[in-house]
Design brief:
This protein is α+β, with helices and mostly antiparallel strands. It folds into two domains: 72-202, no CATH class; 206-286, no CATH class. It is built from eight helices and ten strands. It has a four-stranded mixed beta sheet with strand order 3-4-8-9. It is globular, with a radius of gyration of 20 Å. The protein starts with a helix and ends with a strand.
Length: 287
């Protein structure tokens, strides 16, 4: 988290034209990243752990071990190892992903007792966004689909029908509070809304809008008709729609319209197409 904070401070200074300060904070991020990789990576578990002494790793594998993805400090080989953990049902690939504590830990509780196995929207978004930035968009998509599907199933079968503070990893139920072992707080859209909003748009639909850069990247993975209408773009909106396809290998037929000029990149499998979307003018693409 600190490496990420340093990197973001650098980008903020760069945006304000303060290049010396930007370089300082980027250097701090790189230095801390090297230290994290030197000291907190365990070759035996292929995971990032806390340490109590120079010799001893803290044993549990937790969702905190995925922060290096989002911070941009995880080397490719270690990224692959983290993805393997996310796909492994013995650790993090549970019916409701991603538990805060790996399922092979002695303290893991399948009821989702808070941080001993609970599934949390903020850590899930940290993981999926980190995967996307690390070039692992397909894995981010898989996790997001499974997680949001679990939110819907819990919403439908549990009362009150709402979003919860955290969730059980083994069943579609709310998680349990650590001390009372009662259901966690209901009506918790404050962060669980990340799932049906940000993760739905960015990871499931695959629409990534960078408004300051005036850039839209759409990774098309779904085959049914899908898209979004009235997505905020400054004071205006964006409409983006992809027609139904016969298969994942079929071309994606895209229609776009926005109230701002945007550089557009559409990705569909190995295919890429770039175009310029002009404000107020529709754009149709086949990729």
């Amino acid at each position: 988290q600190m490496a990420l904070s340093f990197r973001m401070l650098g980008r903020l200074h760069a945006a304000r034209g303060r290049q010396a300060r930007a370089a300082h904070w980027e250097q701090r991020a790189c230095e801390l990243g090297r230290l994290i990789n030197d000291e907190l990576w365990c070759a035996r578990t292929a995971f990032y752990h806390d340490r109590t002494t120079p010799q001893n790793f803290v044993t549990p594998k937790t969702a905190a071990g995925f922060w290096p993805l989002l911070a941009g400090i995880c080397p490719p080989a270690r990224t692959a190892a983290l993805v393997a953990h996310l796909r492994n049902p013995r650790t993090f690939n549970r019916p409701m992903p991603v538990p805060a504590l790996a399922a092979d830990d002695i303290n893991y509780d399948p009821r989702g007792v808070y941080w001993n196995g609970g599934v949390w929207a903020p850590t899930n978004y940290m993981i999926t966004r980190g995967l996307q930035l690390a070039g692992q968009g397909d894995e981010a998509h898989r996790i997001a689909v499974k997680y949001v599907d679990g939110l819907v199933k819990t919403f439908e079968q549990c009362t009150p029908h709402t979003l919860w503070e955290c969730y059980a990893p083994e069943s579609f139920q709310p998680g349990l509070a650590a001390y009372t072992l009662k259901s966690v707080k209901p009506d918790f859209v404050g962060w669980t809304g990340i799932g049906p909003i940000a993760m739905l748009i960015e990871n499931i639909l695959g629409i990534d809008l960078d408004l300051p850069a005036k850039r839209l990247v759409w990774d098309v993975r779904l085959t049914e008709k899908h898209g979004i209408e009235n997505l905020g773009v400054g004071t205006g909106t964006l409409n983006a729609m992809c027609a139904r396809r016969a298969s994942a290998n079929a071309p994606a037929c895209i229609e776009l319209r926005a109230d701002a000029d945007l550089a557009v990149e559409i990705r569909c499998g190995s295919r890429r197409k770039r175009a310029r979307l002009r404000a107020g003018k529709p754009l149709a693409l086949s990729v």
